[in-house]
Specification:
The protein contains 3 helices and 5 strands; from the N terminus they run βββαβαβα. The protein has 137 residues and is α/β, with parallel strands linked by helices.
């Protein structure tokens, strides 16, 4: 229920096997409304370009190995405790409509902290989407 409408839990630490390696995806959901899998990778600490590459690889693997006919492309969400503007601006996350990065907190922020975080995330968004204007808020 907390994920939103249409989400069905598929697996935790789902084991994916290729010809050469074993991989474990933190959380896998299927969204019935979107008709696609949603992969969530959880990271403690500041996001790295390796983390972004890993979720991108998981999305591509899932599309190739798990999706069935009629499924829409898999979405990847990378949740981390600290974001990085350089990675948001210069990595594959930039202009990618299937990979997302978000910061999570283990506590409820104050009203001031929440406003500051929203403003900070808006700046990151506009760096990723320079064709959008800030006046459209």
């Amino acid at each position: 229920m907390e994920m939103g409408k249409g989400f069905a839990f598929v697996a935790r630490q789902q084991h994916i096997v290729t010809e050469t390696e074993d991989y474990y995806i933190d959380l896998v959901f299927y969204n019935i409304e979107l008709k696609c899998y949603v992969l969530i990778d959880l990271k403690i600490g500041k996001i790295t370009h390796q983390d972004v590459g890993q979720i991108d690889m998981y999305v591509r693997m899932y599309d190739d190995l798990k999706c069935k006919e009629g499924d829409n492309p898999t979405l990847g969400i990378l949740l981390c405790s600290e974001t990085a503007e350089d990675i948001a601006r210069y990595s594959i996350l930039h202009d990618n409509d299937r990979l997302f990065m978000s910061k999570y907190l283990t506590y409820l922020p104050s009203k001031e902290q929440l406003k500051a975080e929203i403003d900070h995330q808006k700046e990151i968004f506009y760096m990723q989407h320079p064709t959008l204007s800030k006046k459209d808020d």
